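Aim 2 progress update. The chain analyzed this quarter is reproduced below.
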Amino acid sequence: MAPPHVTIVDSAESTAQFVAEQLGHAPVRTSTEEERRNLPRLKFFATDSVEKFRRLGERFLGHPIKDVQHVDLTE
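Predicted structure tokens:
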């Protein structure tokens, strides 16, 4: 419905791209085996598409995201 000169932007996609670019400028730090074992186990919750969250989250964090659960926020 938008005229051709209007660009539709997905804010989640744009934000993930910007953060990924910014993180790309940060120095890479290697971890020891003990540090990797002590990393927190992350669990993610999404109110929108789980697949979209997983795809954008992987770009944002730079590693696969496995545990994403969909939650329905009802009043």
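The beta strands are 44-46, 68-70. The CA atoms of residues 34 and 40 lie 12 Å apart. These observations will guide the mutagenesis experiments scheduled for the next reporting period.
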